[in-house]
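Standup notes
- DV: blocked on the single-chain target, sequence here:
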Amino acid sequence: MSEALKDKVALVTGASHGIGRAIAERFAREGAAVGIGYGHDEAAATDTVDGIRKAGGRAFAVHSELGLPGDAARLWAAFDESGRDHAPDGKLDILVHNAAKASFGHLHELTEEGFDSAFAVSVRAPFFITKLALPRLRDGGRVITISSLSAQLAGPHSIAYGAAKGALNSFTLSLAQELGPRGITVNAVAPGVVMTRNNAYLLDESQAERRAATEARSALGRLGQPDDIAAVVAFLASAEGGWITGKVIDASGGTAL
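- DV (later): unblocked, structure below
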């Protein structure tokens, strides 16, 4: 187990699956105690915690359904309750905003409810989770948001999702300026297509042509894996990443160059 994040405390939202889980597992391998934020899938969150502990790491589940009024306050209350053995003072060093809500469809297909839900989870929740985290974050800490290449490339079918991630990028930039005097870095990581459960359909034989076309868009000729993104996030969370702030890091394997 690495010592890069020894004695650090982290919280990763949306950490029971996919990219969030990979980030949490990477943090734990590097010595951090990790809060596994989740909204719905308690079984998956428990499995993530158990897996980390069996591997010799430290983790605890933090439940709060994001996108609802009062979600940020409930998240931190759950953090204090579940993490009292790892963060008895309620402080933390690393906050990763990974949870998101996709609302796909062209503009004429979108509903107000779908739009509001996407922004409530992907934008409003990070705003107010971070606001309440300000007295908790130790100086020299890290805030990392998981954005998307959808914020930078045209995607009519993902117009709401891309707009939400674009707002998150702007939040990242301004927050980096605000927290810089405390030595806290704030960055976004923007994946392309990553093989999570949302993209598992690409593994079906019937989607072979579509998968090949998607792979061909990457300069590296393959689809991303959750661990690819976790590696970038781990670097930004480490001491070695301490001179980077206010940036959106393209972690797409060179997609659509």
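- Follow-up: The chain has one domain: 9-198+228-249.
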